[in-house]
Design a protein that fits this description.
This protein is mainly alpha-helical. It has 5 helices and no strands. Its main location: membrane.
Length: 128
């Protein structure tokens, strides 16, 4: 089961690192989207959220300080989920559905991140 846990960590950690890279390399587009949602200082918010994803992804991937990684991910998901994907504010049915899907996905990802706290530490196959 430890090998399966490692494979899962690799998949999830790389998912978060990919999204962190997207925040850094697509800063202009993501900042414009954040601004359209009323986020103050959208470039700072995008950069900060990218850093949180980077910390969370590296932590899950390496097994280093998983509690800190989970805290980083929850700190990312709470505001992003409720501010960026506030589907209840949207009138257009198609856009509302798209935002609801992203809202629910983020809740599921946040819930799965919290479940990492139930795994005894130190994790097997950690790098540090």
């Amino acid at each position: 089961m430890e090998a399966v846990f490692l494979i899962g960590r690799l998949i999830v950690g790389l998912y978060y690192l990919f999204n962190a890279a997207n925040h850094f390399f697509q800063m202009k587009a993501l900042s414009g989207y954040a601004q359209s949602k009323g986020v103050p200082a959208p470039q700072v918010a995008v950069l900060g959220s990218g850093v949180l994803l980077l910390i969370g992804g590296l932590s899950i991937l390496t097994g280093f300080q998983p509690t800190l990684g989970v805290i980083s991910l929850v700190a990312f998901f709470l505001p992003v989920t409720f501010i960026m994907h506030a589907f209840w504010k949207i009138q257009d049915p198609m856009m509302r559905t798209m935002e609801m899907v992203n809202f629910m996905k983020n809740l599921a990802l946040m819930g799965s991140a919290l479940m990492y706290l139930a795994i005894p530490q130190p994790w097997p196959f950690r790098l540090f």
